[in-house]
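Troubleshooting entry. Yesterday's outputs looked truncated, so today I'm pasting the complete records for two proteins to confirm everything comes through intact. If either block looks cut off, that's the bug. Protein one:
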Amino acid sequence: MASKDKEKDTKKANKKAEAAKPSAAREEKEARAQRELGIVGPHGDMRLASVVIEGYSLELRDGDGFVGDVASRTAFRHMLDAWRKLFTAMDGKDPMGRKSTRELSKHQLDAMLEKDGIAAQAIAAATEDYALQLAHVVQRFLQHKSWKGVERIIIGGGFHQSEVGGMAIARAGKILQAEKVPVELRTLHHHADEGGLIGWVHLAPPALLQSYDAILAVDIGGTNVRCGIVQTHLHKAPDMSLAEVPRREKWAHADDEPKRDELVEGIAGMLEELIAHAEKKKIRLAPYIGAACPGLIVEDGSLAGGTQNLPGNWESTRFHLPRDLCERLPHIGDGRTQVCLHNDAVVQGLSEMPFTNDVERWAILTVGTGLGNASFTNRRDAPGQE
């Protein structure tokens, strides 16, 4: 009888132990719930504390194509290639050597321009063509209702960070001035590899930024992916004008031609390295990742158009970038990691916020594989604004 009672007690104890121990299924359910909380957004937010995003990723039509296509970096290369072929036919030899136009770097083009030879003439001719097209594109955008009253346009992307690009943008500004178009062209304050990361300090929750040193940010383009640690220096400059990127990684993914999921996997790997670097340098990372990419951002974090320069189908109902990143990344600190999504031109534009207080309406054009765009209105009813 005693042995039977002992057997019953043992069974009861085992049941209690099993009940106290969370099952693998329960743990997975809790982890999934945490991931779902981390991806709720807000994604694609259009109204911020200091600025209203009037519109972005406009696809203005021009005949059979889009207006912006004629002012992309790709378009400039096509123009240069056409002039190169013409000068080759006239001179009997290629003034730019054996490399294809696509393979010539910005630095190589700048060096050719400085030598003032036949290659420089071809580059100057292509630059003039491009400036005319850029001026035309600006005027078309200014006719759109979301761009009405824009006083300043920031030219972003990497194109302006070269002598050739700077010359083309300056020339476009003069063409607009000559045609009495009341708009000013300026170039991005930050390095092109950093502007699309720094803009996230204006989108991240202010209360979160107060408690940490930095956030992680991702800028996904049709040619490159950039990931970085963005330090806010919020306590030194509340307007975020001192925000910087102490560490960043860049992957020219177009050269490797990854599939969509391979690209996401690569981004997750880059972010893991940055998390490890932050721990090593004792940079307190907020449990927050801002991810920017081309296209229209839906409130639930999905994408609805404008992603044609990215590999694979990013608009599939089975694909959700914030969720896919969350599933691949470790926790940052003790809390749940939040992943937010917005348009890449919007984020790069927001990096200019501390430098646009003297105007009410402004916009950005990002010259890359395509031509990104966004327009903004500064909120005069925001705290600290007159």
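Protein two, checking that the full record survives here as well:
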Amino acid sequence: MGATTVTGPDEQGAIKHWLSSIFPAQQGTFDPLLSFAAIGLLVVGFIAMSSASIEFAAERYGDPFFHSYRYLFHLGLSLFGALIIYRIPMNIWERTGWFWLMFAFVLLTLVLIPGIGREVNGSRRWLAFGPLTLQASEVAKVCIILYLAGYLVRRQDEVRDEWKGFIKPMIVLFAVTILLMLEPDFGATVVTLCTAFGMIFLAGVRLWQFSLVIMAALAALIILVVSEPYRLKRLTAYTDPWADQFDTGYQLTQSLIAFGRGEWLGVGLGNSIQKMFYLPESHTDFVFAIFAEEFGFIGAMFLIALFCLLIARILMIARRAEHQQHMFSAFVAYGIALMISGQVFINIGVNIALLPTKGLTLPFLSYGGSSLIVCCALLAMVFRINQELSSSKSPIVKNSIADGRKLSRTIAARKSRNIQKRALV
């Protein structure tokens, strides 16, 4: 008479441990929190930009929804491009890193050539392609992330142990900085340098080497600020904007008035007064101030929470990629999180007079096709990284599978011995 063999508690625990190592929590290809943050920012961005631009569009173009239609057009292009980028494996971006670096240099050089680069408000930052314009610095920032991520993977030991591994990317960043400052685009320069330095720091560079370069970079930025009268004027106006509120401090004081009018719950969608030509660039650099005026402190905190959620999820995906030894994907995700968070911090900091005024867009909210397309492209890369991590098995998981097979053989042998013993009895 046969007997049913019951698996012991130790064996059950081992099996559960093995299964949990293969199927860890939150490993699905769909990340609901990341998707919620991305969709939420796009929806809020469309509403905020449309409201902030109504008066300006009606006066300039005779159509209050001119910028709204353009935003939807750019959003369509962004989503189409994002779908294409999502289909591209990350190893292709890794193999073509040098091409993207050269592409960035070409764009940053072309934009400086008279007749090719388009000049607006004294800055030559745009390339015209018929009805569309491309801001070269926006694309260049992405190219630098891709190149630097590949370099840090190839030369990680060299970056950690030798000066030359650390100096090589500094030479590239120096050349990019020169081209950006010739436009000039001080905001893009700061964001690019901060992103690159953050990626290099996460790669494990020695702290004293990193500190020396940071101090040198800060000294260079101070020289750049002092060397140009308009930058120095912005810095002095930032320290006390109310001292000259109708000239150098005008933009900051009007932005602060917008925040004051918003109070806790805001004046309501579409009811902003500051967007009626009181606050310059209300639909681009200062769209956050108009949003805070219309939706108040609560609305502003909700928007900041969406950005925090987005950045946190990207960092978690980057950390998971690092654990699974997908180092290129990890560095790309880290770079994307650093770039987005840097732009958000600087733009909001300028709006609340925490930082001196500089032209830098707020991702997903400020009007501008280049910024929106680049942001959606970056998110598509993050979703691709998450998909690849979910569908691939890390070395830890592979070892877990081997352990699981060994465990299965052990359990089968124990069952066989138990059956033989019972048969003898």
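Both blocks look complete. Sanity check on protein two: The chain has a mean pLDDT of 85.
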